[in-house]
Amino acid sequence: MVQPQEPNKDWADPRVTGFGNFTETIHHKPGSTLQSLISLPPRYNVRVIGASRGISVDIARSYAKADTNTIILAARNTQQLQDLASQVAQINPGCVVHSVKCDITSAFSVHDLAAFTHEKLGQEGKHLNTVIVNSGYANNRELNVTEGNAIHEFWAQSFAINTFSTYHVAHYMVYSQGHCVSIGI
Asked: Which Pfam family, giving just one, matches this sequence (predicted)?
């Protein structure tokens, strides 16, 4: 069993203790009910936001393995999106893959992503089944409340990505009548 670690003392608030060990880890491998080879219903369509790296890459690959009909990949880094689109196409040659540059902190960019999705899927007589929002930001500093600036760039960036972006996605994706999964940090 992996022992929890205390936070890095170089940046952590000294008033916060026991953060890494407040609950015991009791699992060592996935449970028996987790099935890795699930097949989705026909014509299943997914959008993965924050798809340029991290967990989202594996989420997109997993949907490709599950025989998803269409995957729309969205993130700010177009080169990483193109690389992932190629991987998805290799995993599932029958899957239609779209890569769209999107900054989810911008309501205009999310609106454009929603319009693109509606147009592309509508042309093919499809609808969006699932939206995965896997974008998050946490800086490596913890500021004392009484120090620094209330509009410090790290706080503002965290709030824009972790709060406003989730709102933008929910606001512009309601029409899809699909499921929205938000994965936060």
From this structure: adh_short
Q: Are 114 and 131 in contact (CB under 8 A)?
A: no
Any residues with CB less than 8 A from the CB of 12 and at least 6 apart, and which? 6, 19, 142
pLDDT digits (tens, 9 = 90+) for 113-151: 999 998 998 887 888 888 888 877 776 555 566 666 655
- Per the structure, the complete domain to which residue 170 belongs is given by 41-138+148-182
Number of domains in the chain: 1
Residue 79 within any structural domain of the chain: yes
In angstroms, the CA 148 to CA 128 distance is 43
Side by side, the strands of the sheet bearing 130-133 are 96-101, 70-75, 45-49, 130-133, 179-182
Let me know if residue 35 belongs to a domain: no
Q: What is the pLDDT of residues 81-100, one digit of tens each?
A: 999 999 999 999 999 999 99
Asked, for residue 23, whether it belongs to a domain, the answer is: no
